[in-house]
Design goal:
single chain; 5 helices; mainly alpha
């Protein structure tokens, strides 16, 4: 029987293979952050995919950690201004379009 960490890692790698590039300490930290956020793992992955598409469209690159941090900041920023919980990918795209992304 796989541990909870192994289960999360396998699920993450299946839906967003770049998670396997994280060091174990970073991986566990981000699993915990995602678990404690108001959004599901699937919502985070959808936001990452939208982020990747935005980066490609704008001829930019970003490391996975930077994208995760940006998404977390987007969640924190929107939670201060909204009572309802909008789709995470919508929140991230709003922030990217309003403020951009600097590496």
């Amino acid at each position: 029987m796989p541990s909870e960490k192994e289960f999360h890692l396998k699920k993450l790698e299946e839906i967003y293979p770049l998670f396997s590039s994280l060091e174990d300490s970073h991986l566990q930290e981000w699993i915990d952050r995602i678990d404690h956020s108001p959004y599901s793992l699937e919502a985070w992955v959808e936001a990452l995919v939208c982020f990747d598409e935005w980066l490609k469209k704008n001829d930019k690159n970003a490391q996975l950690i930077g994208k995760l941090e940006y998404i977390q900041c987007s969640i924190e920023g929107q939670s201060m201004t909204q009572n309802a919980l909008p789709e995470l990918q919508v929140v991230v795209l709003y922030y990217l379009n309003q403020f951009g992304y600097k590496t």
